Structure formats: structure tokens, C-alpha cells
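Limitations
The C-alpha cells in this dataset are predictions for the assembled complex, not deposited experimental models. Users should treat interface geometry with appropriate caution, especially where small molecules or nucleic acid strands are included. An illustrative entry is reproduced here so readers can see what is and is not provided.
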Amino acid sequence: MKKLSKLRAGFLAGLIMTLLAVFFVDINEAQAEYGDVVINNYSDGAGMRPVVFPHWFHRMRFRCKVCHADLGFKFKAGGNEINMVKIIDGQFCGACHNGEIAWSVENCNLCHSGKPNTPTQVHESTVQKLAQPTGAPKK
Amino acid sequence: MTRGRLRPRVVFAFVLALCWAIQSMAGEWMPLARDGIHDPKSRAVKILQQPQEALSRLTPDNAGNQVRWVQALDKTEIRPREKLFAKTEVRKLDRDIILDVKGGMPAVRFPHRQHTEWLDCVNCHDGVFKMQTGATKITMFNILQGEQCGICHGAVAFPLTECMRCHSIAKGDKQPVIPPDVNMQMHRSRGPAP
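Predicted assembly:
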């Protein structure tokens, strides 16, 4: 009888540990700022770190319409086929990162700051991540 | 050790851990070096601004960026530019649209004012929504898949977990009912462009 309850307790503790582990791993993986976009169509292939675009930082300075209407950014992570030729030509990020409105393209590292091999994505809130099954296939 | 003594202790520990986890999610922004997408080895994580530094000064919220962006803008805590080019026409509209919902959920109020502070008409009309009330069939299914309102809500604007911020018009004092066919797990981060 005693043995059985010990076994049970062990099992319960184990179950709770796994639950917690799953829970915390997921939180850690999910804490990038809400709305951060990783753009990695070409960067990895070109030996550069992927680009991290922070929405929170830019929306404190510009309304959405500046980028998504005037500058023509489509609402799709990785959907604008941005490359350095276009940027230096003054399109996309280059409309501002030209040494006038914001610092210029020389600062490669500030845009190319992502962890290598991070796929193109939009980062969503922790709360939402928690509502998803862990290890769900990313579409 | 008997089961009777152990169980409350385990449950207590679990509740404590859960409280801690929830606590650590609210009002705290992850440093860039540990956020999972910045390369901690890059020099940039020392130069870039930490979200905590900028966002902790704005009207707080409990979801998304933990900033109530509409209020931060209305109270001029932030003054984001409206245009880059002198010729750009800034268009705004102050008109609420009420979208009634079948079933138990409160009706949805779509406010044009708050949206056109941030967005231009072309961001929604006529690609996503027709300029006529009721002309577009809007469903929670599409929204949770990242279409319609879900293009922005769930990616950049406040997330879809905040049901009542959209379903804000109560039907009497009935409690909202979440029908079994609404799957909260459908909306997940979208991957690379096809």
C-alpha cells in the first residue's frame, strides 16, 4: 500500500516536472517582442545574419501608413523581396536609412542582427504562443 | 509518505510556479540578447534599444507589446510621423461600424477613428473590406487564420486573445458563449512567404 502511493507520488511529480518543462521552454522561446519581424529570404544564403525589424521601435516614430501605404511595404513578412540593391536605391528600408531620416546602410550589423538560420517570421505574443499546442507545425 | 499529505504540497508548488510564470510575463520585456531571435554574439545587442527602456514609459496593457497604443497616441506620449512626403494626403474618418454577431458573442464595434490615426484607407479598402457595411462576410474563422482583422490583430496590433476589445457591445447582460467550432489554436505565426 505504502509502496503504491510512493510510486504514484513519483509519477505525479514526474508529470508535473514535464508539464513545467514544456511550459517554460515554450515561454523562453516565445519572448521576442510582439511584432518583431525576422526577414531571411537571402541573408543566410549570403552569409549575413538574418534581418530583425522591430515594429514597436518604428511605430513610436511613424504611423503604419508611412510604411504600408506611402512606401508600399506589403503586410507579409518576407513578402517584399527586399535586397541591398533596392535599399541603396532608396526603396523600402532605404527610404529612411539613408543618413538623413535615420542612420545609413553602413551599419550592417544593426539590421543584420538575427540568430543565423532563424526563418522568416512575425513574432507573436507570449499569451498567444501559450494558447498553441507546443511543437505545432509552422505553416 | 501518504498521498493525502503529498498532494496539497505538490499542488501548492505548482500553483506557485504558475503564479511566478504569469508574473514574469506581465510588465516585463525580454532583453534582446535573450529574446531568441537576436544573435547574442552580435555587437548589435549592446547598441540597439531595449524594449523595456522605451515601452515601460507608455500606457500599460496586458497583451501584445504591453502598451495600449491607442491611448499612448491619444495622450501624445508618442508622436509618430504621419507622412514622409509633402504631397501625401493624410486621410481620417470618424465613423463606427457595428457588426452584429449571430449566437452568444457580444457584437463587434469597428472604430474608424482609431484605425485611421494609424492607417490609410488603402490598407483596408477595397482589398480587404468593401466600403459598404455588411458587404464583406467577416468571420472569426478567417480572422484566426490571419486574414481580415487578423492581418494586423495577432501580428502587430493588439492580439486576438483580447476578445472583448472587439466584441465590445454586450447583448443585454448575457454572458458571452464561445461556440465549440471556434478554435483558438488556429492562429499561429506565419512562416516564410511562398
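Some entries come with short summary sentences. For this one: Chain B has seven helices and two strands.
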